[in-house]
Design goal:
heterodimer, A: alpha/beta, Rossmann fold, 9-stranded mixed beta sheet, 7 helices, about 25% strand, B: about 425 residues, Butyryl-Coa Dehydrogenase, subunit A, domain 1, about 55% helix, globular
């Protein structure tokens, strides 16, 4: 079976993020870029399915630049080093909103014809948590989001997915092809092994200019606009109070939370 | 080579993530507890496929040696392939070996020592001097770290003058040998499964004229005692011990090469060269870590109303650290280039490399402690550990003084 796994390049979660003074985005100098951690989990899941189902193929897909400072190829090579078979990069330097991302992925699904698309439940940079659901809608495919366990039927015609929902676990079964988005506890991604890193060099990384997809009918117009980014307010110094009564009083009059 | 390649950086990133996830949180127990380093090292081997690579490399080498042996048996004249050309730039090259060393040394130089002695010294000693049967019996398990190796040469009375003062003996006994002696400062000594034991053949002759023989011993052999880990200044994640041999009987199959007439010190130069160049990579890891920690601290530590990085005496320390890092990285680049070209350093160059690397690591680590002030003296900020660990680089694998004499000897020769 063929599995597409999505890869978004995001700042390393360990990096301390600074917002540009004009509020147009974050300062990207000296930021270390990594694969979105949820996408990494998606890749791992795709690889595990591949290891179980003989003859499977895992193809990574990403949308982004192919040269500094927006170069996504490094993250794709890391995914190839983990064990994916090939990668496709839709080349654009524009920051796309989730709907455009989902439309572009839908175009790729038309040509690649995967049986399963595994995605991170959200990217840790803008936390939209939308592209997976939108892709399912655009394709008219079933979806299981926030997956914490994925199991395929013996004939690989359907998938059973356990989702972590408020108050418990929900089990869904749906026919393939379909979309799964990965939650944190789905698996623990592997490290790229040294032989994997050596082999990654020879694997195909196909670049498709976004214009090619536009010619094929992709609509890149968005509906949302980034107005302003601002850092969270600086934490104020704490205040010591004399008594519980005073605390309640201040929570009421000053903090206005009760 | 003027910079790390994209692949090198991928290896580095993967390795760094592993070290920060698996070793950093357990530093306390590895450095100050008595947890041996082997499980973490094995996990590293498995995670990165290093064990599988070692198996493939070993199988290739043994197949080649068997082919040569068969050809010789048929009376054909087969040229001996130099080992480094045959094994050398296997995919990935020397960077594959050096990057894990650098990354481990940012937290645990002791781990590199434990691994290096097992794989680099012990397994390679068997690989270079053993018969094919001996290699198959002992070397492969050491290369994959399934078994832990120790290489025993130093004795209480012989350190730098290892062969001159050596008291450990082998006496012939029927078709086998009886071994006696005491070895000390043996890395992995307390836990080793396979021990390469170097001693002199006692034929009742003058000790100075005795042949040097090398044996392989297995853990649990009657008469062999392995001590508990010794207490030491640093390098706590590398267990060090003593070995006591009291009438240990072994068959001829335990004598490396199964002949008394092999060139006794053959391979010693290659071994020393490898050990010494490895120290450059270790020093780079220590220096990188001290430098990064120091930069962070200089930026954030405020005294007299400003970050201490604004004071020139602190700037001098940072600048010196950067110079050391650049020099060490260039040495490592040279090592990678040489290996790719199928060359290895002459002993004198390796000695110069090691002398500089050890001194640079020591100096940078002590400067880092000083830069951190009181915090530097506390374990929490880790630089004191690296400073204690760095000291060993000036002592083991040939002291600074021995390196100096070897460099000078080569300069004055001819």
């Amino acid at each position: 079976m063929k599995i597409l796994a999505t890869v978004k390049r995001v700042p390393d979660p360990e990096t301390s993020i600074k917002v540009k003074p004009d509020g147009s985005g974050i300062v990207t100098d000296n930021v270390k870029w990594v694969i979105n951690p949820f996408d990494e989990i998606a890749i791992e899941e795709a690889l595990r399915i591949k290891e179980k189902v003989a003859g499977s193929e895992v193809v990574l897909v990403s949308i982004g630049g192919n040269a500094a400072p927006n170069d996504v190829k490094e993250q794709l090579r890391t995914g190839l080093a983990m064990g994916a078979d090939g990668a496709i990069l839709v080349v654009t330097d524009a920051a796309l909103e989730p709907l455009v991302v989902a439309r572009a992925l839908a175009k790729l699904v038309e040509t690649e014809k995967p049986d399963l698309v595994v995605m991170g439940k959200q990217a840790i940079d803008d936390d939209s948590n939308a592209a997976g659901q939108m892709l399912a809608e655009l394709l008219g495919w079933p979806q299981a989001t926030f997956a914490s366990k994925v199991e395929l039927s013996g004939d690989q015609k359907s998938a059973t997915v356990i989702r972590e929902v408020d108050g418990g676990l929900e089990t869904l079964r749906f026919p393939l092809p379909g979309i799964v988005t990965a939650d944190l506890r789905l698996n623990e991604p592997r490290y790229a092994s040294l032989p994997g890193i050596m082999k990654a060099r020879k694997k195909e990384l196909k670049e498709i200019p976004i214009g090619d997809l536009e010619k094929a009918g992709l609509d890149v117009s968005g509906r949302t606009q980034l107005v302003k980014m601002e850092p969270p307010p600086k934490r104020q110094a704490g205040k010591l109070v004399e008594s519980v009564d005073q605390l309640v009083e201040l929570l009421h009059t000053e903090a206005k939370v009760i | 080579m003027i910079e790390w390649s994209e692949q090198h950086l991928m290896i580095r990133d993967a390795m760094r993530r592993f070290v920060e996830a698996e070793i950093k949180p357990r530093l306390e127990e590895l450095e100050h507890g008595d947890t041996p380093p082997y499980d973490v090292l094995r996990k590293m081997m498995r995670t990165f496929g290093l064990d599988e690579m070692a198996r493939l490399r070993f199988a290739k080498r043994i197949a080649r040696e068997k082919a040569v042996e068969a050809a010789r048996a048929r009376g054909e004249d087969v040229p001996v392939e130099p080992a480094h050309e045959a094994d050398g730039a296997t995919d990935g090259g020397a960077g594959m070996q050096l990057i894990p060393i650098i990354e481990l040394c940012r937290y645990c130089p002791g781990m590199v020592t434990a691994m290096g002695v097992s794989v680099g010294l012990t397994a390679n000693a068997i690989l270079s001097k053993g018969t094919i049967a001996q290699k198959e019996r002992w070397a492969l398990d050491l290369f994959t770290l399934e078994k832990i190796g120790a290489w025993a040469i130093t004795e209480p009375g012989s350190g730098s003058d290892a062969f001159g003062g050596m008291k450990a003996t082998a006496r012939r006994d029927g078709d086998g040998y009886v071994l006696n002696g005491q070895k000390t400062f043996i890395t992995n000594g307390p836990y080793a499964d396979t021990i390469v034991f170097i001693c002199k053949l006692d034929e009742g002759n003058d000790p100075k004229e005795r042949k040097v023989l090398t044996f392989v011993l297995e853990r649990g052999t009657p008469g062999l005692t392995q001590s508990k880990p010794m207490r030491k200044m640093g390098l706590h994640s590398s267990p060090t011990g003593e070995l006591f041999l009291d009438d240990v009987r072994v068959g001829r199959d335990h004598l490396l090469g199964e002949t008394e007439d092999g060139p006794a010190r053959s391979g010693a130069k290659a071994t020393f060269t490898m050990e010494r160049t490895g120290v450059a990579a270790m020093a780079l890891g220590i220096v990188e870590q001290c430098r990064e920690r120091s930069i962070d601290y200089a930026r954030t530590r405020v005294q007299f109303g400003r970050p201490i990085g604004e004071f020139q005496l602190i700037q001098l320390k940072l600048a010196k650290m950067e110079v050391a890092r650049m020099n060490l990285q260039n040495l490592v680049f040279r090592l990678i280039e040489m290996a790719a070209a199928g060359k290895s350093m002459e002993l004198a160059e390796a000695s110069a490399c090691k002398l500089y690397a050890a001194q640079a690591a020591m100096e940078v680590a002590l400067e880092a402690v000083q830069l951190f002030g009181g915090n530097g003296y506390m374990a929490e900020f880790q630089v004191e550990q690296l400073a204690r660990d760095a000291k060993v680089l000036q002592i083991y694998a040939g002291t600074d003084e021995i390196q100096v004499s070897q460099i000078a000897r080569s300069l004055l020769a001819g």
